[in-house]
Amino acid sequence: MPGGLITRDAYHMLRTRLMDRLAEAMPVDGVLLILHGAMVADGEDDCEGDLLARVRALVGPECPVVSVLDMHGNLTATMVDAADALVAFNKHPHTDAFERGQEAAHLMTRLIDEGIQCTKAHISLPLLLSALTTATDRLPLCAVHEQAQAFRQDPRVANISVMGGFAYTDTAFAGVSVLATTMGDAALAQQIAQTLAAIAWEHREAATYTGIAADEAVRRAVAAPHHPVVLADVGDNVGGGSPGDGTVLLQALMEANAQDAVVVLADPGAVHHALQAGVGATIEMAVGGKHDHWHGERVQVRGRWNA
Q1: Each residue of 231-247: pLDDT tens digit?
Q2: Are 287 and 299 in contact (CB under 8 A)?
Q3: Summary count for the chain: helices (H), strands (E)
Q4: Residue 246 half-sphere exposure toward CB, CA atoms < 13 A
Q5: How far apart are CA 84 and CA 69, in angstroms?
Q6: What pLDDT is recorded for position 214?
Q7: Is the predicted pLDDT of residue 307 greater than 70, yes or no?
Q8: In 61-150, at which residue ranges do the beta strands (DSSP E only) sit?
Q9: Cα separation of 188 and 247, whole Å?
């Protein structure tokens, strides 16, 4: 659901529920979590790092802690240090979530039953990808994954996670990173991480595409010979945590005098105002841009509510 930045109270409530349930279950053989990797709340830029550190403090240094992550996560040292292993999706679109869950569970089983020791090497690059350049079948990430797959054939390798990062969190640690986890071979983990980081950096020019400006996109849509045309504001994606009330495209469509266009906004206040006015009423009000100031200003509109 559209939400924007998670409030401090909401995050603390969720964290408390998780930690209370874990405390009630103690002692445990291991902790396997399903997290995202780029969760941000008011007052906490690294929610996963905070959660993993608290889990580690509760279960102690000997209890295995493993987490599955979305490859759009932003890895931090806190996350890496708190977990025995972090297993990220290898594909975007995320068609391998089930397989990565299986991989994490299998790794957890080995940590418990065989007592294996994981050694990790984590490198973050000064490379920030837009959502449009994080597909894993295109550069820059496809080249990194190709080499990572070759490294995975080594039985000493426990996991390799290539993180495309999530730029829209706007945190100091957002961006591309790699995490190599081996069966106790620190030198191998470092070699793998350095090699993969170098490949990502080598192909950094492939990440310069940032999409089309809103006014140009609208111009092309209006002039398109076939309709409908879909315009997507990738910076206002509710699946990525945005409030869904961005007005950039709405403003551009109005300035272009575009006809027969549909714009969807998450604006409960505007809905309430329309309901109060009733079907058939002519309404004038400001819509969108009410949750924060990052997705466009409020836009004044006038229209009629038809049944």
Answers
A1: 999 888 888 889 999 99
A2: yes
A3: 9, 8
A4: 20
A5: 13
A6: 94
A7: no
A8: 65-69, 85-88, 119-124
A9: 49
